[in-house]
Every structure is written in structure tokens, then in C-alpha cells.
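Hey, can you fold this one?
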Amino acid sequence: MFFNLPTLLTWARIAAIPLIVGVFYLPSLDGPTQNLLATWMFIVFALTDWADGYLARRLNQTSAFGAFLDPVADKFLVCACVLALVHMDRADVFVALIIIGREIAISSLREWMAIIGATKSVAVHMIGKLKTTVQMVAIPFLLFDGRLFGVIDTRLWGTWLIWIAAVLTVWSMVYYLQKALPEIRARAR
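Sure. Predicted structure:
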């Protein structure tokens, strides 16, 4: 189903990307306002990831297209925000290369495994979900770039979390490659 409520929420995540990044180019807003607005937009749109899956199951509106688009929207949102953070010197370019490189590699691996009929060997695992969760906490911390409740230094915590996410990103990539290796070896013969 190309247009149902869950899929529209997924499309909204993709549409949010230029809005979140564009906030930082509005000269009428000061830095802290830009940071706050981008943070809230990221949080709201990131929550649609949970909402679209929940609604698709609850309303019995799951579809192959929705299953395809959901992870694509997540990857676009995360990669765009990480690139914006690098541009604003809030994240290291090495972190961006790790995160974006892993997304490309694992997406390609999953596509190839689907072609050969071995998608179960690269099914989503808890380490991948943990990686995503840490990213989804680190990014708004780095977007906010200030003191939360006057106490929490979000840049410090966001930096630590984005590096932890980078480590989890490599770990999850190694895990998926190891799971796919038997199929890769079998096809290479």
C-alpha cells in the first residue's frame, strides 16, 4: 500500500530531512532557537519510526513497500543529520564515514542476500536495534548543543554517545557479515 497512514508517517520522515537541516539556514533565528527547533523536529519525526510500525500492525496495513521504505527513511534521516552535525563541527567526519559506510554496506548486503533468497541470515538483530537507539539519542543531544535542564552538557553526552554508536555500528556490521559469510562462501564456489 503506497498511501496509508503508516506509510505516510514514513514519507513524513523523509520529508522532514530538508526541514531539520534547513532550520540551520534561517537567518531570522538565533543559534539556540535553531538548535531547539531542529532537536524537537528530529525527536518528533524519529518517533514516527515507532508509530508507523505500530500502526501498520494494529491497522493490519503492513506492506512490502512499507517494509522497504521504513529502513530507507531511517537511514536518510540519520545520515542527513550526521552530515549536518559534521558541517557544524559537532560530530567527527570519521563517525560520519563509519555510520554512512555501514549503512551502504549492510543495505547492499541485504539486497544481495534477498536476490539469492537468504534474507533470514541478515535479519535485523538486537545489536542493530541497539545501534539505532544510541544514534537516536546522540543526534538530538548534538543538535541541541547546550545545557539540558541547566545541568546536562548535551554536546559532551552526544559526543560520547555518537562514538558509542560508531563502535556499535562497526560491531553490527561485523555481526551481519559473519551471519552472511556461509551464504557468500556457498555462492562463491
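The two ends are 39 Å apart (CA to CA). Let me know if you want another pass with a different chain boundary.
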